[in-house]
Amino acid sequence: MEGIDHLADERNKAEFDVEDMKIVWAGSRHAFEVSDRIARLVASDPVFEKSNRARLSRKELFKSTLRKCAHAFKRIIELRLNEEEAGRLRHFIDQPAYVDLHWGMFVPAIKGQGTEEQQKKWLSLANKMQIIGCYAQTELGHGSNVQGLETTATFDPKTDEFVIHTPTQTASKWWPGGLGKVSTHAVVYARLITNGKDYGIHGFIVQLRSLEDHSPLPNITVGDIGTKMGNGAYNSMDNGFLMFDHVRIPRDQMLMRLSKVTREGEYVPSDVPKQLVYGTMVYVRQTIVADASNALSRAVCIATRYSAVRRQFGAHNGGIETQVIDYKTQQNRLFPLLASAYAFRFVGEWLKWLYTDVTERLAASDFATLPEAHACTAGLKSLTTTATADGIEECRKLCGGHGYLWCSGLPELFAVYVPACTYEGDNVVLQLQVARFLMKTVAQLGSGKVPVGTTAYMGRAAHLLQCRSGVQKAEDWLNPDAVLEAFEARALRMAVTCAKNLSKFENQEQGFQELLADLVEAAIAHCQLIVVSKFIAKLEQDIGGKGVKKQLNNLCYIYALYLLHKHLGDFLSTNCITPKQASLANDQLRSLYTQVRPNAVALVDAFNYTDHYLNSVLGRYDGNVYPKLFEEAWKDPLNDSVVPDGYHEYLRPVLKQQLRTARL
Ligand SMILES: CCCCCCCC/C=C\C/C=C/C(=O)SCCNC(=O)CCNC(=O)[C@H](O)C(C)(C)COP(=O)(O)OP(=O)(O)OC[C@H]1O[C@@H](n2cnc3c(N)ncnc32)[C@H](O)[C@@H]1OP(=O)(O)O
Ligand SMILES: Cc1cc2nc3c(=O)[nH]c(=O)nc-3n(C[C@H](O)[C@H](O)[C@H](O)COP(=O)(O)OP(=O)(O)OC[C@H]3O[C@@H](n4cnc5c(N)ncnc54)[C@H](O)[C@@H]3O)c2cc1C
């Protein structure tokens, strides 16, 4: 029935003020108001309709994406939206597109690596979208191993130009988003060669297509790499391939903020760490962490509302059946994901602060915190995207059979999200960066250098290596010190064990390769500690609103104790806790699930998602699932006719054949 809120009873049960929680989730009242206004603007504009995306051919989908981007740009100008509002607009349009790479990587790469003069020239064009750019780093043969890239940029002093060339097939650029069909320009990463010497990977601005008719410029071969996983999903993006046949660009199109090539061809190395050439990746990894909570909360919102609507078993004497959300198994799968969504929100906020802080320090030539910023962005990108991709799939299963329908919103969300485990650095490769950072930190313990920031706990090694948890009853697991100590001791002990095992190898690099799997586990333990500690730190802030802090407290301990339960092997094998304490943690977890249960629907309402953004029949705000599932089914092209196309050619002859055979 239209107009009825099938989830009203659930909403009435809530023990906190949802409106206040919306502000906490958004980050501030201002952020909430901007998001709310822009989400409604998108939802009410027919050009941004997306419910039929799965039924479009790739070409139709791509053209509709171009239309949406053009319309969005028009609205941004008409409504004079600022940068923040424009970013929210793109977010709520919710269709991967070339603009993501233009604004998300091309512009930041120029900002981070271009000189002031270069920024002035290129950003004024890019900001008005008079040129459209992408980030062309990955090649067919190398993605993770950036130092292994093969594209060359050879300086020609005769003409004061670089010659950009693709020497082999594996050197072809492959994957850059926006490259395939749209970008007029790219920041191309290539090996800089001058005076016969290879100086490694540097960034160059290269024009790819004519600004008159969009055709590729001479000696450039460019196209789309093909259809990707899922219907709709990431197929709105033109990930591309690109080959150069001795393409010439002026010398001043090398991004020269960090290092330079003079008119004479002399290479002038940077007086800042060369790793700053990777700065765009640090920036984007930070935004990916901030985005993980968006994707996970969206899936959790769908699964929670549907779990409250769906009933199976448990009816007695003709009574009403049990809501599946009341099964402890459902809660044990769903509530840790709800808690993770909030946890990732807060760690994302903190990482944004860390990124801003390191950027300011770099501007003042203080490079001390760069390794930590790299480790945190890499490790948290890996941790949050892995958990989010797995979490979306778990939400699909939590919705039973109907979760597998495209109109549940979950299959497409998964297909769009899962490459986040690979792009901006494969998640295992990134955890190995964290492991290297941890091994360095452990090696320095006792040298007088005090670990700071996220590794400060390692400075308390004497205590953490021998302490035993003091937990004696289930409620003790709600003590932040008890939780933090267990997570710190586990992370430190795993890192120290790896370091000890490494020291048994004569060749450290060989040892590192041998211990890769353990090192990744140690890195994950360290990153989980960061998330837990930032959630606990959030609770120490002044959070107002009726009952809001209590709910966040419950979610925080669900997150921590669920991790403890999931990684029990780590905690027990490192003697951080006893089996009895593990069992008490489980008791506490069950109690927290009971406390969250009446608030579950309100906790997902606090995400403030419009039905347009969710695009899910199962996650509808009003919970009116069943009639809408039918409506969706009737819309399917297969139901356009009662007898399907192909009946006369392929079905009737078979049926007739069977008839004849049966008569024999
Ligand atoms: C909401 C808005 C969102 C906008 C964004 C839209 C998203 C759109 C979706 C997709 C876009 C996708 C884009 C891409 O995928 S772009 C390509 C990304 N590619 C990668 O991430 C490659 C992964 N590989 C690497 O990052 C590196 O090569 C490495 C980390 C694996 C290092 O390899 P290695 O060979 O060991 O190292 P090096 O010799 O190169 O350097 C070692 C040295 O440098 C330190 N270091 C490495 N990376 C960084 C860094 N980023 N910052 C600072 N320092 C770094 C490393 O720690 C070593 O330090 P040392 O031990 O002290 O020597
Ligand atoms: C949707 C999508 C969008 C993308 N957009 C862009 C873009 O805009 N611009 C761009 O330049 N690139 C882009 N990429 C490319 C992306 O950055 C790379 O695919 C990514 O960095 C992973 O590199 P790879 O493909 O070389 O993986 P590989 O390194 O080949 O990984 C294969 C396997 O090897 C393992 N492995 C690799 N090295 C190690 C190691 N040292 N130790 C242990 N295990 C290892 C990995 O864990 C993985 O299991 C995109 C990719 C995707 C999927």
From TrEMBL:
<dbReference type="GO" id="GO:0005777">
    <property type="term" value="C:peroxisome"/>
</dbReference>
<comment type="similarity">
    <text>Belongs to the acyl-CoA oxidase family.</text>
</comment>
<keyword id="KW-0576">Peroxisome</keyword>
<dbReference type="GO" id="GO:0001676">
    <property type="term" value="P:long-chain fatty acid metabolic process"/>
</dbReference>
<dbReference type="Pfam" id="PF01756">
    <property type="entry name" value="ACOX"/>
</dbReference>
<feature type="domain" description="Acyl-CoA oxidase C-alpha1">
    <location>
        <begin position="278"/>
        <end position="439"/>
    </location>
</feature>
<dbReference type="Pfam" id="PF02770">
    <property type="entry name" value="Acyl-CoA_dh_M"/>
</dbReference>
<keyword id="KW-0276">Fatty acid metabolism</keyword>
<dbReference type="InterPro" id="IPR055060">
    <property type="entry name" value="ACOX_C_alpha1"/>
</dbReference>
<keyword id="KW-0274">FAD</keyword>
<dbReference type="GO" id="GO:0055088">
    <property type="term" value="P:lipid homeostasis"/>
</dbReference>
<dbReference type="InterPro" id="IPR029320">
    <property type="entry name" value="Acyl-CoA_ox_N"/>
</dbReference>
<feature type="domain" description="Acyl-CoA oxidase C-terminal">
    <location>
        <begin position="479"/>
        <end position="656"/>
    </location>
</feature>
<keyword id="KW-0443">Lipid metabolism</keyword>
<dbReference type="GO" id="GO:0033540">
    <property type="term" value="P:fatty acid beta-oxidation using acyl-CoA oxidase"/>
</dbReference>
<keyword id="KW-0560">Oxidoreductase</keyword>
<dbReference type="Pfam" id="PF22924">
    <property type="entry name" value="ACOX_C_alpha1"/>
</dbReference>
<dbReference type="GO" id="GO:0071949">
    <property type="term" value="F:FAD binding"/>
</dbReference>
<protein>
    <recommendedName>
        <fullName>Acyl-coenzyme A oxidase</fullName>
    </recommendedName>
</protein>
<keyword id="KW-0285">Flavoprotein</keyword>
<dbReference type="InterPro" id="IPR012258">
    <property type="entry name" value="Acyl-CoA_oxidase"/>
</dbReference>
<dbReference type="InterPro" id="IPR006091">
    <property type="entry name" value="Acyl-CoA_Oxase/DH_mid-dom"/>
</dbReference>
<dbReference type="GO" id="GO:0005504">
    <property type="term" value="F:fatty acid binding"/>
</dbReference>
<dbReference type="GO" id="GO:0003997">
    <property type="term" value="F:acyl-CoA oxidase activity"/>
</dbReference>
<feature type="domain" description="Acyl-CoA oxidase/dehydrogenase middle">
    <location>
        <begin position="134"/>
        <end position="235"/>
    </location>
</feature>
<dbReference type="InterPro" id="IPR002655">
    <property type="entry name" value="Acyl-CoA_oxidase_C"/>
</dbReference>
<dbReference type="Pfam" id="PF14749">
    <property type="entry name" value="Acyl-CoA_ox_N"/>
</dbReference>
<feature type="domain" description="Acyl-coenzyme A oxidase N-terminal">
    <location>
        <begin position="17"/>
        <end position="132"/>
    </location>
</feature>
